[in-house]
């Protein structure tokens, strides 16, 4: 249940409900261990904050495969990135109680394997030049392998999330939706939001990976699976069970 929180919900579905999209990405133990090793820093494999940028000319060279995390202000993005990097405690991810704390694109280098980018939040307290910054990044960053669009698991898709989806679809950017804060949602509410978002993805998107990823930065649910998917899309898991 910690690794595959989505499948824990299956027993509460009506008989005959299609759950194929619950398990499109099902890595085995070896793949999960490989991903965990990638996210664990050591002397020969440093995980470092590289730099911050508000314009693309200030971004580090696009030398490695890259993933970015984007979402509404207060969706729990910084908390999730801190959970992903929990095996590299020297990496400082500032988590603020004030929404909209991230004002720049923050780049983190994971050894020689990939770069992870923490993008500013959209909506409430978004940076003034948010649209220009993010649109330029998405259109120009040719080493970007996948965008992780974070959605609050308690409130589901909001109007600002729909705008983000439209932007990703317009630019033809491959992305995946991640439901955060699942520890705060009741089982019924979480299941309702999961099914509604899955239906939305099926009916209204072209570039979104059909499987949702559920995470709790507090209970650590889904973090191992998300690490594994990041390793997979950046080309660092040569053999993994994924359709």
UniProtKB/TrEMBL annotation:
The protein's required cofactor(s) are namely: Mg(2+)
Q: Per UniProt, which keywords does this protein have?
A: GTP-binding, Magnesium, Metal-binding, Nucleotide-binding
User: Which PROSITE patterns would you find in this protein's record?
Assistant: G_ENGB
Q: Name one GO cellular component term.
A: mitochondrion
Q: Name one GO molecular function term.
A: GTP binding
Record-annotated EngB-type G domain positions: 63-236
Q: Which family, according to UniProt?
A: Belongs to the TRAFAC class TrmE-Era-EngA-EngB-Septin-like GTPase superfamily. EngB GTPase family.
Protein name as annotated: GTP-binding protein 8
Q: Which organism is it from?
A: Donacobius atricapilla
